[in-house]
Amino acid sequence: MAAATPPTRTNRIRSVTIEGFRSLKNIRNLELPPLTVLIGANGAGKSTLIRFFELLSWMLKAKNLQEFVLRHGGGDDQFFMGARKTPRIHAELCLDTEKGQNDYRFDLAHISAGDSVMVMNEAYRYSAHDIPTKAKWTEIDAVGKESSLLDQTHKTAKTIVNLLRQCSTYHFHDTSINAAIHNRWDVTDSFRLRSDGGNLAAVLLDLRKTDGKRYELIVKQINRVLPTFKDFVLEEEAGKVLLRWVGRQSDKVFGSHLTSDGSLRLFCLLTLLNLPPDRLPDVMFFDEPELGLHPHAITLVAEMFKRLSKKRQIFIATQSPYLVDCFELENIIVANANNGETLLRNLPREQYQEWLDDEYQLSDIWLKQAVGGME
């Protein structure tokens, strides 16, 4: 009998150090599991970690750091308590690939003129898994308003850029009348689901044409949660498609404007989480994905997060006890606020196993203040 093929190591972010970014004053060597669930009350700062990785994605995607800063309140707002109190942001990331560890570090300084930021002290290195000592840093001498890592030709720099630029945050919150999901969409924009779900109809139409079994699975899963749902009605007209569906009780076709917010978010989540891995980024962030979902839907989505985390790295920010209880201690990072500073920490099993042995749920531990939950 042939030996089993070992699972392929997923490229992922192993740990991060962040000093001075917004409320993240001093986060050192925070371990990030393949499936990370950030829990915390309103204002605890759990979403700030996601914003940091959004900054990285903008910075390394097409040298759009200044655009990110402009869209998010200006340069001064990116520094803990402002640039006068915190003159510099420092960050270090450890990225795991199949053969080794890729490290990247950089600083950001505030520029008063134009309320922008400057990138400096960039460096990178690669250390093989089978070599115990760390490699020396390769320092980038350039200083400027955008990252110079993109200009490096070394394989390590390219590996780091390729992983971090793919960090994608999915917000399916906007289901207002002007939301993109209500628009007719170009059928050719169908390979990846956009972060706001705007091209959902195009993605579903493509799956129905090219991967019928996957499409049927999505429809079946939606029906498990919404028994009145029968199928999508996806008709191409002049190269565009509109999101519509039909129920089981009648042949009336419902447009997205007649669909509840929770149902639209469910359509987006189940479609995204069922896409083939090659149509997904390596690192995926979800900010409160439970909004508007029925408990049965939350359970289904949580199981799909677990399955997908074997192939892609998943980050979830939530304050839902129901969602938290779907995961394990090793998945949890707790966010607490202390005098404007966000504290993030893992939950060691040896410290909290006794609570679980006494039949407490993860959410009970959090809510009862054992790890600093709600008041």
TrEMBL record:
Gene3D superfamilies (alphabetical): P-loop containing nucleotide triphosphate hydrolases (3.40.50.300)
CDD domains to which the protein is assigned, alphabetical: ABC_ATPase
Gene Ontology molecular function: ATP binding; ATP hydrolysis activity
One Pfam assignment: AAA_21
GO biological process, one term: DNA synthesis involved in DNA repair
Domain ATPase AAA-type core: 35-325
SUPFAM superfamilies associated with the record: P-loop containing nucleoside triphosphate hydrolases
Protein name, entry field: AAA family ATPase
Organism ancestry: Bacteria, Pseudomonadati, Pseudomonadota, Gammaproteobacteria, Chromatiales
